[in-house]
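Workshop exercise sheet. Pairs work together: one partner reads the sequence aloud, the other fills in the structure field after running the prediction. Swap roles for the next sheet.
Pair: D.N. / O.F.
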Amino acid sequence: MNTQTLALRIDAPMQSWGVRSRFIKRDTASEPTKSGVVGLLASARGTDRNDDAAIEELARLEMGVRIDREGLLERDFHTAQEVPNTMGTGHRTVISDRYYLADALFLVVLRGSAALLHELEEVVQRPHWPLFFGRKAFVPAAPLVEPASERERWGTGLSSRSLEDVLEHHPWLERDPERREEMLRLEQDQRRLRTVIDVRPDHEHAERRHDLPLSFTEGARRYGSRAVRVGQVPLTDDMIGGRTARTEGGATCI
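Structure field:
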């Protein structure tokens, strides 16, 4: 099978990637989950939530995440009134804690069939349904795939490189000049980006994540487990400066 990789920018002021959300406590993982990314792609593609075969096709994609900016964990104290009770005989007020990530930035890399990834690159630029990161109010702050004029600078989109190679060498997605300059002033051994990559279950450093979607059918959602390896990649001067930047006097010129 002809395979490729697809690099996506996941960038928003607020994001929520729930794993164990139940009832009055809605959690978030510290990086995009497999179920969250599959749901995002399914929305872009216009896939019906009852189409288990289409969900399975997306879930089979190999996924790697690089955390280009760790988010801050925040809590929203949420009150909902006039919520029907389980017996349907009255209403109540429900108070819940809803957690989300603020100011986070991620590089998500997918590997799979070239034909499928070509389609996904197209639909995330012209989605069938609106895209959001975990909650409908958490919309993207930037395109998931850069416009053609920005591709060379930021590198998102399709590639024939391996998933690991993209995670290790893709330009840093941070756009803030002050943050970029601050990072350039650090010693090389202080610049590390966390990564979470799909691996085989028998990998020596495998960790289990229960976020593999099997079905999004309303009232019958099902999830399985996947194996991931958590690691780090060095953030080099070239990655910080990008392909068209240079460093002069400690500042980054773009």
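Discussion prompt: The longest helix spans residues 34-45. What would you look at next?
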